[in-house]
Amino acid sequence: MNLIQLDFQKAKTRHILFKTRLRSLLYGASLDESSVVSVVECPFGKWLHDHALQVYSHIPSIQVLEETHHEIHFEAKSLIELYKNGKIGEAREGLLRIDELSNQLIEVLLSIEKQVLQEDLETTTSDNPQQLWINCQELLELHQTIQQLDEQIKQQTFLAHNIRKEADQNARKFLNTVRQAPVGIIILRGKDFIVEMANETYLHIIDRKEEVFVGRSLFDSLPEVKDIVEPLLRGVIETGQPAYGHEFEVEINRFDNRERTFFNFVYQPLYQPDGTINGVIVVATEVTKQVEAKFTLQQSEAQFRNIINQSPIAMTIFRGRDLVIDLANQTMLKNVWRRKLEEVQGRKLLDVFPELRGQKYPELLLQVFENAQTHQEKESLAYIDSHDGRRAFYLDFEYAPLFDTSHEVSGIMATVYDVTEKVESRKKIKEAEERLRMAVGITGLGTFEVELASQQMSFSKRFLEIFGFEPNDTPTREILVQRIHPDDLAVRQAAHEASVRKGILEYEARVIHPDQSIRWMIVKGKVLFDHQSKPFRLLGTVLDVTEEKVARHQIEQSEKQLRELAESLEINVARRTHELKITNEQLAKSNDELAQFAYVASHDLQEPLRKIQAFSSRILEYEWNNLSLTGQDYFRRIQSASKRMQQLILDLLAYSRASTTDQSFEATDLSVLLKTIFLNLQEEINQKNASIECGSLPTLKIIRFQFEQLFTNLISNALKFSQKGTPPRIHIEAKVVASPNIHSFAPLVHSHYHCLTVSDNGIGFEEEFTERIFQVFQRLHGRDTYEGTGIGLAICKKIVENHDGFITAHSQPNQGATFYIYLPVE
Q1: Order of strands across the sheet with 456-459?
Q2: Percent of the chain that is helix, strand, coil (3-state, to 5)
Q3: Which of 111, 370, 641, 732 counts the most CB atoms within 10 A of its CB?
């Protein structure tokens, strides 16, 4: 590398140093801004103005380089201003524009370097070794500076991430609290007072929808209050002092009227991290009715009491410092106090509820009475006695002072929300989570989580133990994969590829520990998908099943020995019973007849039909245009009839196969069986936009292929006989019922039955056809309306009877149909 190449390499490195410092500033590093903002003070600017513009001024591209450099600094200054104004995300997104301009600058710099090197070849100047050494030293210093800045960036980024995460959590908690507050709350931002957030209470007060109110200036939505409210808001922003309003009068256009309203409010300034004010939070309570009550006290009092009595929210009014119960609505009496009105009205609170002594509520009520300030609390625990004993409540409550005409506190209105169920549910969820963690620990499960985009992985200590690592090790995903037995890598790969399609991960593999011992593990997981149906996270568990594998192997060996023993014993069996011989002969005869029918259906009957279809195809291909219109119509009918004949033969063959029970019964999980059927019918399901819900289904001993035929026929019928314009909804569930609870015309020989139901929202049928639909060739609709041969439900009936059960149905026209399959409980 000569001096020119070193010179330009130094320039590139200085520009990288500039970009690194800019990124550091935007991620919270404490650096001198002048080296980033100033065109001359930055490292690349010094090289450009102190050296390049003098030495390479004869090259036209040097001016383009200077212009690009100026544009980069202009953008950098804008990003720093955004960052200072609190628009951190927008500032960091602007780094993409800096990268684009940087690429342009590097391209210009490379073209200048190329031209200068060409000139250097023509002049054949020799390099100065001393200058080369100085430039190399400077490059090393720049590289070290960049490394130091990079380390600072990593530290600041990690710190910023944690701070941002905590801030986001606090913000969500705050916003959730604000949205549930029983007072109106709104947050305004900027000099134009843009509405950033308004809770439901505030939106209800002003009769505005959130989608048209939030994101706009307050006075665009409420122009009628601008002259009165804007000076107060600007005073808060300019002085930093909160503004308070008591029975503040303002006219608002709401509920199709211009109303004269009164509010108690607080305008509180919102500060930026740098101490500047960029917004106001408004907390407002409408007191219009209270103010109007001063002028029409008697009428308003009656209306007020009526509102309280009819309110679905528990409310009561206390009068005087002795807290005499003046009024309590039915919600309060029935749900919280569990007393009648005559038991409490006109009596002191502590005389009725002495158990409140020692609890905080009497003292809080007196504080509200003394301070004339509303008091609110969330999920406060209270113990209240009644005729049914003591009960604990979690309450959201508000104590609001009531004023008389002389503006003195005359009483307190208590508003109470019983949130006991919500709090107890949350506690149960927390307890359930703790039990789940304990269960995971007890079962020896290892857990893991993978961010699929970045391949970042987190895992439990038990997971590391299963893979043969120490508890504090942090292996990458690639290192973990290296621990898997080479013969099992293909199984793992196939399972992960399938999980991206199906959302479920499951495979079994061996792990090789550092001591060369081999452990068996089962991996199960679930893939999470984003709103674009793209996988973004994998959650899973790992279980060490080595001991189970060893035990299973021992059991298999024992079973093998038992089988060998059984075979040796079977050799000594000399005879079969006469009854078994007769039964086998009858079964053989039945199977022969069935085989003959199957041969006729599959060969003798279909062979002429195939010839009809073959010659029809020839006519269609070579003679179609020679046929008259009538002939063409006849030909179409021939083709349609041949197709129906072929389907009829196939259905008859299926019916004959369903009549046999010489298949082995095997324990089958019906949930797994249905997943296979759903995949086979996926195209029809998608075409119909159908949805299928499955409850918990049992594992039964059945002939698997017959039950596939059974469920396929029932689900296909539900899809076929759906109502036009209504997506099919199919529900499948199972339960065990006792014989006395089953309506059946035939005697029931078993005490309990599995009841499998398949229901839909299709066109249904008249109840009188319940028996007819299960007969062969019985159709309720013409072929022009719905295709089919009328054998499908007859096949279903035959299959259920093969399993010692029975099938029935219930339906009404246009109200869907439900099929009930009853199988004996073994």
Answers
A1: 456-459, 446-451, 535-544, 518-529, 504-512
A2: 55, 20, 25
A3: 732
Strand partners, 263: 248, 286
What is this structure's pTM?
0.29
Mean pLDDT, the chain, rounded, equals: 83
pLDDT tens digit string along 177-216?
778 888 999 999 998 999 999 999 999 999 999 999 999 9
Who wins on pLDDT, 686 or 780?
A: 686
Closest to 129 in 3D by CA, of 5, 11, 7, 3: 3
Contact 671, 709 (CB under 8 A): no
d(CA 12, CA 67): 16
CB 394 within 8 A of CB 347: no
Task: At 266, list the tokens.
Answer: 């607080």
Strand runs labelled E in 146-275? 184-189, 194-198, 243-254, 257-271
Q: Distance between alpha carbon 48 and the CA centroid of its chain, in Å?
A: 53
Pair 656, 598: CB distance under 8 Å: yes
Q: 462 pairs with which residues across the strands? A: none
pLDDT at position 124: 45
Residues composing the chain: 826
Q: What residues contact residue 243 under an 8 Å CB cut-off, 6+ apart?
A: 232, 233, 235, 236, 265, 266, 267
Planar angle of CA 566, 568, 569, nearest 5 degrees:
60
- The answer to whether 76 touches 98, Cβ cutoff 8 Å, is yes
Residue 758 has pLDDT above 90, yes or no: yes
Task: Annotate 116-182 with three-state secondary structure.
Answer: HHHHHHHHCCCCCHHHHHHHHHHHHHHHHHHHHHHHHHHHHHHHHHHHHHHHHHHHHHHHHHHHHCC
Q: Identify the band that residue 19 occupies on the pLDDT scale cut at 50, 70 and 90.
A: confident
> Is residue 756 within 8 Å of residue 734, measured between CB atoms?
yes
> Over 60: is that where the pLDDT of 683 sits?
yes
Q: Provide the H-helix boundaries in 85-124.
A: 88-93, 95-123
Is residue 739 within 8 Å of residue 751, measured between CB atoms?
yes
> What is the spatial distance between Cα 503 and Cα 483, in angstroms, rounded to a whole number?
25
